[in-house]
Amino acid sequence: MNQHLRSEPVPFIDLAAQRRRLGKSIDEAVGRVLAHCQFINGPEVTQLEAQLAAFSGARHVVSCSSGTDALLMVLMAKGVGRGDAVLCPSFTFCATGEAVALTGATPVFVDVDAATFNIDANSLQRGIATARKNGLKPRAVIAVDLFGQSADYDAIAPVAAEAGLFVIDDAAQAFGASYQGRRLGGHGIITTTSFFPAKPLGCFGDGGAIFTDDAGLAETLRSIRVHGQGSDKYDNVRLGLTGRLDTIQAAILIEKLRIFDDEIVARDKVAERYARALGNVVTVPRLAEGRNSVWAQYTIRLPESSDRDGFAAALKAQGVPTAIYYPKSMHQQTAYRDFPVVDGGVPTSEKLSADVISLPMHAYLDEPTQDRIITAVRGALGA
Prior knowledge:
Layout: H1 15-22, H2 25-36, H3 43-56, E1 60-64, H4 67-77, E2 84-89, H5 95-102, E3 106-110, H6 121-133, E4 137-144, H7 153-163, E5 166-170, E6 178-179, E7 182-183, E8 190-194, E9 208-212, H8 215-224, H9 247-258, H10 260-278, E10 298-301, H11 308-317, H12 347-355, E11 356-359, H13 367-380
């Protein structure tokens, strides 16, 4: 009697495949930390920071406990606080605006570009005027590199400079990508990233890092991440955090960084195959000139009037998972709906929240599995 055998579900992000590739190297790296017992600020932390600096081209790297703390630490180091405004895209993860609000400052939400999903410089300019109209002092802009591709810093920089703002590149989803031929972190802008396990370069817990060419800022950040300590741990010269990266996580990241370049190439090949196979049935991501992506997510836009929930259910029935980043833009969420929104609103952010959906993406997505995903997508859309 013939039986129909249902295929195994496709991993959305396959950390197990990466683990198999790395073999015993991570176990051995963790074992070295367990042997020397320097679990806080051990030698692997310093080693990782040096390797991240070499990888990115940044002069200084300060590791920390998460991507959110990385943003918060920069804002604290810059003295951002009550009465200040920080411009943020609304179509992003909540950590961007959360870090601003935690300082006592006010996030002001602006719109994004429909093609790249990143902050729109024209909306940013209007957002600065909105902040001032609300009695706030614009201090900074956090330009998120969403889904793996950097924002347009050539367009952002003159707007920020004219208004006297400093720029933070929130590269939590894009570390490893390049902008105009230089890797993020080494392009002269304060850059933060996350090492959350699902990120293109992720550890086995929480972690983050800050990249800067400013030696004074780096020194202040190192103080902030250890309770604001000065010459010793009982001489606290400023308010700070418990913001350190655990030594075990640093050891894991050192091993993962060894294969990161290879994984970026593999991710790009997966994205190219998706684009060729799906570009005539959905709106596929577009890379702007002078930029590449590490494809933290592969996010498509469904045709107008599509049933997104029905589409996701159809793929799930085929063992293909999906995710929605983000079903609500920040200004639509309960904790953030009372913060200012740029005059004229953020219609692109709202439209994206209604029609985007992300497909499985990782460096170990083989062609037969990807073909299965592509077939499921086209079938769900009747193509």
